[in-house]
């Protein structure tokens, strides 16, 4: 079954497509014979001896045993460990309520900032943009955010966004922007020197040297959602040549 899946990597699959597999279907990871079960990511669901496709998109694979469907989905489902861009919507006692684009607002303690104490509270106002990480993401619990990593450092997280523009894109475009070997982000930075903050919830904050350049980059990002790679490269070349 693994060989069948690998043959379909890069192809477009539709809801209802299925692959047959045994309940104990495993993949050898080392020469010693150790094996591990297939990991079905977003868009794939196991049902007995079948692997079902639950959303339309392109089948992707990550070694050694993870498969998922990459789609143009815009609805965000919070997942633990993901970094998101949120908007502070309210203060409630010692907790901030943050809109992260999910089905409900997330909570953020005022102590979840680098150097924050009961006397030294962070300067966070309603309407501020936050780059934060999800530490609780469960369908039965309210999402919870922090602006520090495991060692208590901000590591780029916290309040940001003075100036710039916040836009909404598909989750597939977010993954392409964050891909280690992707060239989309590098192409954008070659056009204009800019700052980008990308959240896994489909929000992108961009700021360039001028308002006009910021608007151009924001429009380009939204256009990339529906463009193929050759179309995008052609558009970028025209911009570099001063056609617009």
What report would you give on this structure?
The structure is a single chain. The protein is α+β, with helices and mostly antiparallel strands and 244 residues long. The protein has 3 domains: 2-70, Beta Barrel (OB fold (Dihydrolipoamide Acetyltransferase, E2P)); 83-160, OB fold (Dihydrolipoamide Acetyltransferase, E2P) (Beta Barrel); 165-240, K Homology domain, type 1 (Ribosomal Protein S8, Chain: A, domain 1, 2-Layer Sandwich). The chain is 20% helix and 35% strand. It has helices at 2-8, 171-178, 184-191, 211-224, 229-240, and strands at 12-13, 18-20, 26-28, 35-37, 39-40, 44-47, 50-53, 57-62, 66-70, 83-92, 95-99, 106-109, 129-138, 141-146, 158-160, 165-168, 194-198, 203-208. The chain has a 5-stranded mixed barrel with strand order 10-11-12-14-13. The protein is flat, with a radius of gyration of 21 Å. The model is unreliable at 26-35 (pLDDT under 50).
Keywords:
3 domains; Ribosomal Protein S8, Chain: A, domain 1; five-stranded mixed β-barrel; single chain; alpha+beta; 5 helices; flat; 244 residues; four-stranded mixed β-sheet; cytoplasm; Exosome complex component RRP40; OB fold (Dihydrolipoamide Acetyltransferase, E2P); rRNA processing
- Percent of residues in helices: 10-25%
Helix count, per DSSP?
Answer: 5
Q: What is the H/E string?
A: HEEEEEEEEEEEEEEEEHHEEHH
Oligomer: single chain
Calculate Rg over CA atoms. Answer: 21 Å
Work out the strand percent. Answer: 25-35%
User: What overall geometry do the principal axes of the alpha carbons give?
Assistant: flat
CATH superfamily of the largest domain: Nucleic acid-binding proteins
CATH architecture of the largest domain: Beta Barrel
